[in-house]
Amino acid sequence: ILNVEQSPQSLHVQEGDSTNFTCSFPSSNFYALHWYRWETAKSPEALFVMTLNGDEKKKGRISATLNTKEGYSYLYIKGSQPEDSATYLCAAYYGGATNKLIFGTGTLLAVQP
Amino acid sequence: EAGVTQSPTHLIKTRGQQATLRCSPISGHTSVYWYQQALGLGLQFLLWYDEGEERNRGNFPPRFSGRQFPNYSSELNVNALELEDSALYLCASNADPFNEKLFFGSGTQLSVL
């Protein structure tokens, strides 16, 4: 059974702090890594999709890196704002016989003003 | 452009009944994915339809089934409902299953009494 793991499970930071989360995944048959932000009472919204080892993506204050050889991705938020409060989900897409996108359980970020 | 739409928003059923959940993908998207989020758990992969065919299913019993129509909309059917089927059911779509992010609907909250 393929397991995508995220850490920490939850995080409380002060406004202005920079923070980062980790997503770990099995490397075998790995194809792509997705990051989503899920705010309360809304739908999950995609942040990034990365496929290549060493990929780095950036969207405003949020950036992500990917290491496919060791099976991890980091999501960074610079200068956290209260509106960044959400659950951040990563998901790994596996091809071959697995052929599905598997989600981690998420990191809940709370940014205190 | 309309996003992914799901109906109904809420559904209340009793044990043993059947539930039908509906999803309309974004125009031009041929792939539809169904995920379940039960209380305290992450997003669990249920089903993936592409071009009218079931491409993959998750580790759920056969009473979870679905279909995709020629217009790419999709239905999820849950037969013989059990209490533990109470969950948020999310539908997502994209045009390229291998490379593109998922666009999520706002979900159907199913409660089984």
Percent of residues in β-strands of chain B = over 45%
- From the alpha carbons, calculate the radius of gyration of chain B and give it in angstroms: 13 Å
Structural class of chain B: mainly beta
Secondary structural class of chain A: mainly beta
Radius of gyration of chain A: 14 Å
Give the quaternary arrangement of the chains: heterodimer
Q: Low-confidence stretches of chain B at least 5 residues in length (pLDDT < 50)?
A: none
Helicity range of chain A: under 10%
How would the blueprint of this fold be written?
The complex is a heterodimer of chains A (113) and B (113).
Chain A: E1 5-7, E2 10-14, E3 19-24, E4 30-38, E5 45-50, E6 56-59, E7 62-67, E8 72-77, E9 86-94, E10 100-103, E11 107-112
Parallel strand pairs in A: 2-11
Antiparallel strand pairs in A: 1-3, 3-8, 4-5, 4-9, 6-7, 7-8, 9-10, 9-11
Chain B: E1 5-7, E2 10-13, E3 19-24, E4 31-37, E5 44-50, E6 53-57, E7 64-68, E8 74-78, E9 87-94, E10 103-104, E11 108-112
Parallel strand pairs in B: 2-11
Antiparallel strand pairs in B: 1-3, 3-8, 4-5, 4-9, 5-6, 7-8, 9-10, 9-11
